[in-house]
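Possible regression after last week's pipeline update?

I re-ran a chain I had predicted before the update to compare outputs. Posting the input and the new output here so someone can diff against the archived version. Not blocking, just want to make sure nothing changed silently.
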Amino acid sequence: MRVKQITVYEFEELSPKAKRKVIDDFQNINVDYEWHEPKIDYWQEKLKEYGFNNPKIYFSGFYSQGDGACFDFNGLDIEKIWAHYNQVKHSTWLKAYLGECFFKTHTSCSRYSHANTRMVVCDYYSNKAYPHLDKAIREFERWLEGFRIDLCQEIYNSLQKEYESLITDEAIIDTIKCNDYEFTAEGKIA
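New output (post-update):
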């Protein structure tokens, strides 16, 4: 058996070339685990606050065709969602009737996870004697779909911002320092 001694360095002690190698080698150190879970948890709670029951968020990213975020939900809390819709000045009779409707998402494509892979659908009993009611429900459904799409974009943007902050050189260096990693003079982990 033979013992070989090597000199190890902290990140700050490396040459600029070795530092660059380390940063490049550790490019995914902050995103190779479930980095998005706290952000997803935050948005699922926020969606519940808006009135979406049982929200489930999906996303893919970033920088490729088909990337985006979307969410499924199974029913609405009309009291909560009404506060956002009421800004458009609608009557309370519609609010009462919406409580009898069932809103959910319909998946149109499972290959991607952007806003356009889902759509809002409403199950309700159509009463032909009240065509203005059908029109008002469809108007609400269109508004809800637009609101959902806007939220999907917000979710995606926040995930992308978080991801981009985690892959910066500064964030990588902070993680390396926090873990007290040591390297050879060439920038290989010791």
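Follow-up from reviewer: compared with the archived run. The longest strand covers residues 102-107. Marking as no regression found.
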